Structures are given as structure tokens and as C-alpha cells.
């Protein structure tokens, strides 16, 4: 994400200026997509959450203060959308129903196929996904976004000590997972 | 190599290969357009809301994650805009005692509501993780012409019949929503925490509840008309209208509920019998549902009844008479 002054764009976007929205979207979409991909529990939800993020951006643009870095503010918005994603999947109990909004199923399926071909190349994602969301947030912000513990504490609005303990826990879990994979690879190489 | 370094490298390595698929662009732009339009509409229409609030009766939306786990697909049906699937899931089986307790709390809260009010009731006995259930005290419009013009003003072109089944059942009233299930759309996390704390201090087993405002579900229009026979039996004719967007609807039945596909002269419908319906009069609810594509909308029609004298065969006959 480029270090731009986003205020004028956000104002224009919230006034209904489509061109401004497209500019913001083009500049941020890959970052948004990756961050959500890493944070979400299910890759099938990624496209839906990306869409939620941009609708939320439209609603919350007036809350952005130019003195704060846009990337941190926007990352905070993304993290909150990922957290609230499941809450928004409302369902009906009667019978129970959940209604999921798609603009175009074909488009979604295509996106899913593209996504799964990428995820097959990655060892990281399945391991990351095994972590609880709170631990995953720390890992992604620290190692993908290169945030300090202090930055993360501010962004997530939690004490520094909590960030560190979640980080410790997350690394321990991931280390164990990586070791399991290594063991499996070694055993596959044995000739009996 | 340390795990920290491995993580750094893995994220960097993936950066170039993991990009937002171009196929998402048109969807996101369309959703932005829609949100902007909706915002403009809500500003211009604010002052001329056509009607007093017509509210649905007691609908129960729960927010449950992981429903799909352990679910068995019973049927799948679709139109160009709507995909509809019914699953059964053992997770939704409750003892009669639990259901009765929940029903009595919902009924008590309902009795305390003013006309048109909606409340959520905290019922952890039904779901620990997502224990909020909605109940409403609906406003019915009993004049057929007035009701027809109300829904017409909302863009609904469905014709509301004066009678159904050859004049046996007469129109008694129409309301937004559905009396037996459905609709709140609120952020629940904070509310659940608050009500949980209140419930802990509640030693006399009083229901814990809150009135909620503006909790209608976006993008789906729900209407229900009630018809009554001279012997007091009632049938509800309800519509779920899906416009503009493509939806996927998943319904989950408990393993105790009866499901059957019905084919009448080449037309398919789905019959469900539920003996543990929370908002039906005596807990029994029968539903016959079918899907229609009309004027660019996808519509789920349902005939629903909590009258014990109504049979599946009667619902099927009514379905035949309407198609």
C-alpha cells in the first residue's frame, strides 16, 4: 500500500465518487486480499470478507483522521471485519437458515478456484489456519506487516503483555506444526 | 533457520503469487454502487415513510457458526438467483422440557411487548454460543386492499388472494416478516456478554431480554398473510422475495423433523413437519415450500400452519390449487 494522503480520496469516495473508490480499491486490493487470506479461518470466506471490508470502508471513511497512518487505520478495519465475519452470517432457526449474499456465483467460484491453486503452493497457510484467530492476528501483523509489539498492541487495543504472550503461544504452536511436517517428510524418504 | 525467519520468508515468498483475483473487481464495484444508491435512497425516503411500521411476528434468527459440521444434505433446489439447500443436523435436537422452557420464556416476553416491538431473549439452554432468539408482537393489516397497496408501495407485485383453497380460508391479515421464524440482523457479541452477566444474577429464572430496533434483514423482503377457515384453522401464505442479488439459502432441520419432497403434476415442493417449533401455538409447525422465478425475482413461497387439524395432504391440495 503506497504512503499516500488518502483523506481527499476517502472524502470523495464517501460522497459517492466512484472514480475515487476505484482508485482506493486498485491501490489497496492486493494488500487487503492477502491480509484477509492470512487472517480468515476459511479460504472460502476470503472474497466475501474483502467485499465487506470495502463496504465498511465506505461507512467508516469519515472516522479516518489524517494525522494517523492510513495503513494502520485500514488494517484495524480489516482485522475487525475478519473478527466479525461469522457474527454477520445470520441464520434462521426454525428450521435454521443462513442466507449468504453473492453478486455472482460464477465469479465466486472462479475466485475460489484461483485461490485454491495458490493455496496449494503454500505450506504456511494450513499451519497458520490451525492457530486461534487471536494468535493468528499477532503472527500476521508481526511477520507479514512487520509491526512491532507496541504497534500491534495499539492496533488491537490490547495490553503489550497480552500481545507478547499470544506471540509466544503462537510461535510454540507453529514450531510444533513445522516439526510435524519435517518428521513426515523425513519418514516419506525412508526406503524399507 | 529460526521460525521467525521462516515466517518472514514465507510471507514474502507468497506476496507475488497471492493477489486479489480480477474476477472480484466487478463484484466489489457493484457492491459499492449498491451501497451508495441505498444511502441516497434512505436519505430521500426518510421523510415519506409510507406506512406505520408493519412488523413481523416472532422470528428467530440465531447466529451459529459451524452449522455445516455434521449436517446431511436433504435437498438442493435453485433458480437463477437463488440456491436453496436443506440439511438435517443432530445438533438441533432438544428435550421437550428444554423446548417448553424456551417457549414459555418467549411467550412471556412477547406478552410484555407493545404492538410492533421486537425483542431478543437470552436462551442459553438452546445454544450456549449463540443464545439470542427474537420474538415480536406484530402489527397485522386486516384490510386486504390496504395490505395490497402497502406491499405494492414496497415494489411487490404479488397478488394477495382474498381466499385460498376454493374459498375455504379467508384473508385475516398481512404482516411483514413471518410469524414462525426469522429475522433479526444485529451485532450480537456485546449484547450476549451483557445478557449473560445479567442472567448470572438472575436467580428467579425470569427471562433476560432486550427490545431491539431496526433489526430488519437487508436485501430480502419477507411477507406473510394469514388465512382462516370457519372452524378456526389457519394457514399462513408467506413470501421470501430475493431481488437484485444472488443468494444461497441453507436451512438446517433437527434430525427429529420430518422432511419430504413433494411432486405435484411436475411441480416440486418441500414438506417439513416440526414438532419443536418455538413460536408455533403448540409447538407443531408444518410447512410446504416451493420456489418460483418471476419478473426477475426469485421467490420462496410457503404454506405454513400450526393448526393441529391441518394435514400434509391439505397443504399439498392448497399448493395444487395455487399452481
Protein model, in words:
Chain A has 192 residues and is mainly alpha-helical. A two-stranded antiparallel ribbon of chain A has the order 1-2. In chain A, helix 8 packs across helix 9. The termini of chain A are far apart. Chain B is of the alpha+beta class. Chain B has one domain. In chain B, strands 6-7-9-10-15-14-13-12 form an 8-stranded antiparallel β-sheet. Chain B has a 3-stranded mixed β-sheet with strand order 2-3-11, with no helix packed on it. In chain B, strand 14 and strand 15 form a beta hairpin. The chains are: A mainly alpha (192), B alpha+beta (323). The interface between A and B is large, with 58 and 69 residues.
**Topology of chain A as a string of helices (H) and strands (E):** HHHHEEHHHHH
Number of helices of chain B: 6
Q: Give the DSSP E fraction of chain B (strand runs of 2 or more residues).
A: 25-35%
Q: Count the domains of chain A.
A: 2
Major sheet description of chain B: 8 strands, antiparallel
Order of helices and strands of chain B: HHEEEHEEHEEHEEEEEEEEH
Average pLDDT, all residues of chain B: 79
CATH topology of the largest domain in chain A: Rna Polymerase Sigma Factor, Chain: A
Radius of gyration of chain A, taken over Cα atoms and rounded to an integer in Å: 19 Å
- Briefly note the structural class of the backbone of chain A: mainly alpha
Poorly predicted segments of chain B: 42-68
Please report the total strand number of chain B as a whole number.
Answer: 15
CATH architectural group of the largest domain in chain A: Orthogonal Bundle
Distance separating the two termini of chain B:
70 Å
Measured as a percent range, the helix fraction of chain A is over 70%
What percent of the residues of chain B sit in helical stretches (DSSP H or I)? 25-40%
Helix-and-strand structural type of chain B: alpha+beta
The geometry of chain B reads as globular
Overall mean pLDDT score of chain A?
A: 75
